[in-house]
Write a structure and sequence with these properties.
Order of helices and strands: HHHHHHH
Number of helices: 7
Helix content: over 70%
Number of strands: 0
Distance between the termini: 43 Å
Amino acid sequence: MIDSLPTKYQEDSIRKLFGDDAQVIINPFEKEKPLGFIIDIQEEVLRKGPAYMRWASRFNRNQIGSAISYASTHNIASVDEYRTHVDMLAGQKTDLLNSVKQAEARLAEIAALRNAKISYAKNKPLYDAYRKSGYNKKFLQTHSEEIRIFRAAKEVFGTHKDEKIPSVKELNVMFAEVLTQKKEYYAKYRRASELHREALVNCRNYAAMVGLKENITEDQSQKNDKRDHTR
């Protein structure tokens, strides 16, 4: 777990960074500690006061503990590896979203065919009568809407002229199957979105922690250099 990380990211180092009372929380899944991005305390405390600073400090320690625990659980040893992990989860989320969209497009196609089959069967006798009338203009004016719907149904069939059009019963079965698939894809997409956000937040907090420690190390080095020059 946390002991497997480089020394500068272990608990003792975090305590030195935030103080001896710092508590590194290594369970990122505790519901009472919501996941969020590390807060810029220096900027916010000027507007919200010292009480907010104390709360934000505890919040930041929890988020850093979560980021470290997540890294340990997923065998992540650097910011670059964290980002690669986040990109992988983003790709999975995108693939699932595309599957949802494809299922939705297929549902729309099946629904259009089903409606066309129903409209065609319902209005075919009237259209046959219109044709037998010699395409009488008065007949067309009287039944213009029904004839329009019939012709629209034929146009839908024209887009599937190279395949057999299933029956309404078969289309209903197909629609139900694709709808079930869509719901499954969407459930997986929601879960993938949650996993991606969890990884993204932890990655950014981990990167912020690494940057903060590097800055402190650099500042300390500069202070030591100045101390050496004054001797």
